[in-house]
């Protein structure tokens, strides 16, 4: 009550007294009544030399126990967390050291790598003809049985980059020359499945980087970015099937449509499931891993079908080898992601580098690159032998 009475008396003096006295009292009142909100705003000016900006705030890294519930995903990573940082500081933290730095950059570098692949694919020019794929060399060799074989080297390149795919075929030189002539006169096979895969990979990598960089801002931001991250993973898996199915069954519309339709439906269902809030619960880590694994392993059906129909062709064997490598990388990544090793074995020792999610990112990049190489083989095959 005493403080309230004093305030009222000072206010009465300001309103009824002499102008000079009132002004002095107002200045005194403003100097003594300081608002915490005002202290957080920019308060430095040229008249106060040496006074630091009072709005500057040091955003410090915190430990796992200090995190809000929405940021607690891995109890084996104990320190170097960002918690509820403003967007500006979260963006700038891409160039700082914390437990998400490597997660951000592994997939951000991967995004730019696949962007370069996309530009390269869009600007591929033939070495000798007006179509996107051309015959670089055609040589005749003799095998140990005396029959003639042809080594076909397909050149795909831009700015000095080239990918050579060598296929040994038991056919005559005349038939190969006819194939070259028809290739030069014809048109290239559709590119959209290959570009769909590249776009799916870029979307996945970019959303992953954004999630790891900005999810620390707020619970709402974390919710939205995690959904985009899950959608990106699903998009990468689904679009990985497009080159495999489309180019393998280019001449069989029924199976081509069947496989493409099923994998697209599976992907849409996975995205719908990932929209449920419970999907991101830490205890459902295995469920998330199992869902994406099931979608990926469904690709074994068209691969087995491919080998049954085209097993004698070198392109089928080469693409299957790349696809098996891709699957092995992805499966290893899922196991590391679900088990949270090695940080499970030594909590706190891998907070900044070497923890499971970083290894998961590297394995995803390796798998995506293996499938990119398979896509180049598919293009070279179907550019020569389209239906």
TrEMBL record:
Its main location: membrane. It is a multi-pass membrane protein. The keyword Iron-sulfur does not apply. One of its GO terms (cellular component) is membrane. GO terms for molecular function: metal ion binding; signaling receptor activity. This is Heptahelical transmembrane protein 4. It is found in: Membrane. Signal peptide: none annotated. The chain crosses the membrane at residues 104-125, 194-216, 228-246, 258-279, 286-304, 316-338, 359-381. One of its GO terms (biological process) is response to sucrose. Zn(2+) binds at residues 212, 357, 361. Keywords: Membrane, Metal-binding, Transmembrane, Transmembrane helix, Zinc. InterPro entries: AdipoR/HlyIII-related (IPR004254). The keyword Zinc applies.
């Amino acid at each position: 009550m005493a403080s309230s009475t004093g305030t009222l008396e000072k206010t009465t003096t300001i309103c009824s007294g002499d102008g000079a006295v009132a002004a002095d009292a107002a200045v005194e009142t403003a100097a003594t009544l300081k608002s915490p909100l005002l202290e957080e705003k920019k308060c430095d000016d040229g008249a106060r030399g040496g006074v630091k900006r009072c709005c500057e705030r040091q955003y410090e890294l915190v430990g796992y126990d200090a995190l809000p519930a929405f940021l607690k995903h891995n109890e084996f990573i104990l320190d170097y967390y960002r918690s509820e940082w403003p967007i500006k500081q979260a963006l700038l933290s891409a160039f700082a050291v914390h437990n998400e730095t490597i997660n951000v950059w592994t997939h951000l570098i991967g995004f730019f790598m696949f962007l370069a692949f996309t530009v390269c694919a869009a600007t591929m020019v033939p070495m000798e003809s007006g179509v996107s794929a051309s015959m670089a060399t055609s040589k005749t060799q003799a095998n140990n049985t005396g029959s003639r074989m042809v080594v076909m080297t397909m050149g795909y390149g831009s700015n000095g980059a080239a990918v050579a795919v060598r296929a040994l075929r038991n056919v005559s030189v005349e038939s190969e020359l006819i194939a070259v002539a028809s290739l030069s006169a014809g048109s290239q096979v559709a590119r959209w499945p290959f570009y769909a895969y590249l776009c799916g990979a870029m979307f996945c990598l970019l959303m992953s980087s954004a999630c790891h960089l900005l999810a620390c801002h707020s619970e709402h931001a974390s919710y939205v970015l995690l959904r985009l991250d899950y959608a990106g993973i699903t998009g990468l898996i689904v679009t990985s099937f497009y080159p495999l199915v489309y180019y393998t069954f280019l001449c069989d519309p029924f199976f081509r449509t069947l496989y493409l339709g099923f994998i697209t439906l599976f992907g849409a269902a996975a995205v719908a499931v990932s929209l449920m809030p419970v999907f991101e619960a830490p205890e459902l880590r295995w469920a998330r891993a199992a869902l994406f694994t099931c979608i990926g392993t469904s690709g074994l059906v068209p691969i087995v079908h491919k080998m049954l129909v085209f097993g004698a062709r070198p392109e089928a064997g080469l693409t299957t080898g790349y696809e098996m490598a891709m699957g092995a990388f992805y499966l290893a990544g899922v196991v590391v992601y679900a088990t949270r090793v090695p940080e499970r074995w030594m909590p706190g020792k891998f907070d900044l580098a070497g923890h499971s999610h970083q290894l998961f990112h590297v394995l995803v990049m390796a798998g995506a690159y293996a499938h990119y190489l398979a896509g180049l083989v598919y293009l070279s095959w179907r550019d020569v032998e389209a239906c």
